[in-house]
Amino acid sequence: MAARHEEIAEELRRAIDREDYTVGSLLPAETELAAHYGVSRGTVRQAVAALAAEGLIGSRQGARRVVLAGRRGQSFTELCSFARWAQAMGREASGHVLSSAYRPATPEDSARLQLPPGAPVLHILRVRGLDGERVLLERTVYADWIAPAVERIEPECPSVTQRLYQDEGLVFAYGEHLIDAVAAGAQDAELLGVRRTSPLLRVRRLTTTREGRPVEWSDDRYRADAVSFSVHNSTGINALARKTGPAMG
Asked: Which of 9, 27, 121, 179 is least surrounded, with the fewest CB atoms within 10 Å of its CB?
């Protein structure tokens, strides 16, 4: 059972999600929150400290806390699947495998997945959607040792990560992300419903187990009008987050 301060922190997160407290507004004072939840100020301090550590509110002591960000973004400081991120926003994630084939590992595959050159690796092209709208193309290469389990997953499965955990007990524990922008080629443009050369946000990621064993590496391309990335800075955190909506300067 969650501790009381954790429950209060989650209630405040949901209130921020609902925009009961919008970005730039102030949370009630600690005394008000304590009275509202029927707890001590110390319990409230623990709850708001958790939100401050996440970058949702300001961390200044002795004053009402200002709301710095909504929780609609998924921080890259936490390894989280596309489906879980969508679910946290109240959106419905979908996935569909467009192609699946074994190929000999290229030198890049071998280096990233720590496999011998020529080892059979599984290449999957998958399109992802939010509420039925295509927003992401994933070109994923799976290591030979996990590829058969991935093949057994139905093409429409919304969360491969969750299924691999349920079926194989596999935990995606660590991820490395390299983010840049690319122009949509002919295939990307057709599959995402954008014009050729339209800007796409690309995330190249490598995911490993707790033991550091590479599971997959992927080239993910997001429609720039559907997903953006934001950085929330403070003296305590520097959290990069994935968000829906157009990018903002």
From this structure: 179
Q: Which amino acid is at 57?
A: I
**Rounded CA gap, 221 and 5, in Å?**
39
The CA distance from 58 to 143, in Å, is 42
DSSP for 100-167, please give it. Answer: EEEEEPPHHHHHHHT--TT-EEEEEEEEEEETTEEEEEEEEEE-TTTHHHHHTS-TT-S-HHHHHHHH
Pairing mode, strands 174-183 and 133-142 = unpaired
151-196 pLDDT, tens per residue? 999 999 989 998 999 999 998 888 888 989 999 999 999 999 999 9
Cβ-contact 56, 67 below 8 angstroms: yes
pTM summary value: 0.67
